[in-house]
Each structure stands twice: as structure tokens, then as C-alpha cells.
Amino acid sequence: DSPGSVQVWCPKGMKRFSKDITELDVVLAGFEKIVADYRQRVDSSTCRKAIDGFCSGFKDQITDLITEVQKLKNVKRKNAKVITDIKKKRQRLLQISEELMGTEQQLKQLQREYAELQEREASLRHATQFLIDLKELQQDCLDYREENPKEKVVYGVSSLPALLVESRRILSAERHFKNINARLQEALDVQREKISKKH
């Protein structure tokens, strides 16, 4: 008989399927068939009892072996499943670790950019305050010239207020710094929003 035509013997409390059939199942099925045929040809009740006793003992040995083999198969299947699960989890951990490393690098980059923007913002505030002071000084000079129109203007290192009065480039520089301030403030707001989302 082929393995496909052999009946699957199932121990108590254990499931077995056609794919679990082994040579022991084939031997057991063949042995039971031979014994059944031989028993029919025996008339003596004593001989039949002897045959039944021998058959029972042999069958117990075979079924015990089948049970142990099946237990071993079940253990191997469970181990294979556990190993597969471990590999999947290890792969996922590696993936998460790589993602975290990438995120940390991005965070460090954002922190560096944020620090640079803060430094630029501080420098811009100082420059803006300096321009405000210059503008006030310019206005003071204009007021002074209006009050003293006959006083001759002397240009020199010690006459910076008079020189500032004559130079209109300060106003254009002020507008330029205001534009820079607006752009940097916008970039700073964007970076702050990115960092807040990361946390």
C-alpha cells in the first residue's frame, strides 16, 4: 500500500494528519492486515489468544514509537515557528534601530540649524538696535543743524554725526536689514514648528 492509502493512527489527545504518516504507520497497517488474515485461518482458540496477545504487544510498541516520533515532529514545528518569529522580530528591531538613528541625525541637524538661527536672530536684533541708535543720532544731528544753520560742518573722524547726516545710505541699509529680519524670522518659525512636531 502507498502512504496515501494508509489510515492515520492517532494517539489519544494528539492530532495527526496525512502529512504526518511515517514508515511506522505503514508497518502497523501491514502487520494488522497480515495478522487478521492469519487469524482467520486458525481454528484453535488457544492459538488465536496467543496471536491476539502477540499482536497487542507488537502494536503497543509500534504505536509508542509513532507517538514519540509525532511528539518530536511537533516540537520541531514549534521550534521552527519560534525561530521564524525571532528572525522577524530581530529584523524589525534592526529596522527600528536604523529609523531611530536616522531620526536622531535629523534631530541633531535641526538643533544645529535652530541654534544657528537663534544666533542670527540675536545678531540681527543687535544690528537693528544699532540702526535705531544711528537713526536717532541722525535725527539729533538734523535738529542741531536746524538750530545752528550758520555753523560750518566739518567732516572728520570726530564728526561722525555730521557725516551721518549727509549719508542717506543708512536708510536703505535699514530697509535691507528689515527684509533680512523678516526672512530669518519666517525661517525660524518654520524650524521651531518642525522641532515641536518631532517631540
UniProtKB/TrEMBL annotation:
Keywords in alphabetical order: Centromere, Chromosome, Coiled coil, Nucleus
Claim: Coiled coil is one of the keywords in the record: yes
Coiled coil segments of this chain: 72-127
Subcellular location field: Chromosome, Centromere; Nucleus
GO cellular component terms attached to this protein's record: chromosome, centromeric region; nucleus
InterPro entries: CENP-U
Origin: domain of life: Eukaryota
Entry similarity comment: Belongs to the CENP-U/AME1 family.
Protein name: Centromere protein U
Origin organism lineage: Eukaryota, Metazoa, Chordata, Craniata, Vertebrata
Gene from which this protein is expressed: Cenpu
